[in-house]
Structures are given as C-alpha cells and as structure tokens.
Design goal:
Layout: E1 5-10, E2 30-31, E3 34-35, H1 36-46, E4 51-56, H2 60-69, E5 75-80, H3 87-96, E6 103-107, H4 118-130, E7 135-141, E8 155-157, E9 160-162, E10 169-178, H5 192-201, E11 207-210, H6 220-227
Parallel strand pairs: 1-4, 1-6, 4-5, 7-11
Antiparallel strand pairs: 2-3, 6-10, 7-10, 8-9
C-alpha cells in the first residue's frame, strides 16, 4: 500500500517572523533562493505522491500565484480555509473533504524539508501500513535541532508516543493520518493538538524517529542564522 495524497498547511500568519511576514506568507520565505514551500513540494514529489492539497488563508493570493507560475509534477489544489482561519485540525479536516483518500501525508512547510528525509518517510509509511495504524508522527531528538531554544514535545518508546518530564522529541511537521480520526470533531476550528492529546490518553499516538538534522523556520533570529549556513 502507498499514500498518494499529501497536504501542506499554509494558512498561518507567521507572526514570529514579523516583519518579514507582514508582506510575504511564511511558506514563501526563501532560503538559498528557494521558497520553503518549494523545498517541501520537491520532497513530496520525490516520494512519488500524485496529488497535493494546500490550505490557505493569510496572503492566500500570493501562494496561489506562486503555484500557478511553477510547473510542479504532482497535481496541486488550493483549498481556502474560508472567511475564518480554521487552525491546524480544522484546516486538515477541511482538506479531507476534497479527497477520497483515507490516508494522507501532512506537512508543515516551515521545516526545511531536504530530500534526505525521503527514505525515512517511506519507512514510516511502511510501518504505518504493516501495523495497520491510523496515525504516525515523524519525530526528532531535540539534540539534532539547529534551533537549540526549541523545547521537546513528546517522548517515544517502541513507536508509541508518550508525555513525561523528559520530552526529548520534537514534532518535525510531518505526519500520516487516517481521515476517520477527525470525523468525531464537530467544530470547524480546532488544533490538531486536541487529537494528539486524546490519542495519547488512549495510548494510541504513534511516532517514528528521524536521524536527520532538524532545521525549522522558528522565528526571525533563527531565519537569520539559517541564512548564514
């Protein structure tokens, strides 16, 4: 089995990158003359994913124009959040209404998604289907984070995500999700953290560890450091 559809979350305001993001949406910020959104799409293309959905809200026309000018191999559809921003969970649920696929890859484009993630994501996908999971998050040990100010989110034991005092692992911004998990959420706007916390309580949130160095467009200070690499 294989995942054919990916979502990229591009609706946020990117306030921690002001004043850059007063005029440019965060996914279109460039590092080494390439927009971080393009780097993300290039990784997804290397995974042989056939279709990409991108949700938009803030400065949405710039993202639509960017996609229209590029000649990416996968089919790319823009899904607007609507009159109000839907947050991460609501944005994902809204995009799920536009695909018949049950299982989707989901990316945050503010991670610098180099193609060396490809093999690990494929291994994560194999684990997802072989264990018949309905969720899995790509995590990284915080020791591998370029931004040393980032706190850990979770701990990981035998691919099961737990929360304790150590929190040695950071969510990278990549996950696989089955659409049925979001069917119980009736509100339009909600955070994907709500789902994760519910699953942790049930001991049903799963993780996969990457060994790649983690570069994340956290804030203006980090952006300036990344430009110097």
């Amino acid at each position: 089995m294989k995942i054919n559809t990916a979502f990229i979350l591009c609706a946020g305001f990117g306030k921690r990158l002001n004043p850059l993001t007063l005029d440019i949406p965060k996914p279109l910020i460039k590092l080494n003359n390439i927009a971080v959104l393009e780097t993300c799409i290039n990784l997804i293309e290397s995974l042989d994913v056939k279709e990409i959905f991108i949700n938009t809200f803030y400065l949405k026309d710039q993202i639509r124009n960017f996609i229209n000018k590029k000649n990416f191999k996968p089919k790319i559809s823009i899904i607007e959040d609507g009159k109000n921003i839907l947050d991460t969970g609501g944005g994902i649920k809204n995009m799920l209404n536009h695909t018949k696929e049950d299982d989707v890859l989901i990316f945050n484009p503010d991670t610098i998604w180099k193609k060396n993630y490809s093999e690990e994501i494929i291994e994560m996908e194999k684990l997802y289907f072989s264990k018949q999971l309905n969720n899995i998050l790509l995590l990284v040990n915080k020791d591998l984070s370029f931004d040393k100010n980032l706190n850990g989110d979770f701990d990981l034991k035998d691919n099961l995500i737990i929360k304790n005092n150590d929190r040695k692992f950071i969510y990278t911004g990549c996950q696989i999700l089955n659409k049925k998990l979001l069917s119980i959420y009736k509100t339009e706007k909600f955070s994907i953290n709500n789902l994760w916390n519910d699953l942790i309580e049930k001991k049903e949130l799963y993780g996969f560890e990457t060994n790649n160095d983690f570069y994340h467009l956290t804030d203006l200070k980090t952006f300036k450091k990344l430009q110097d690499l």
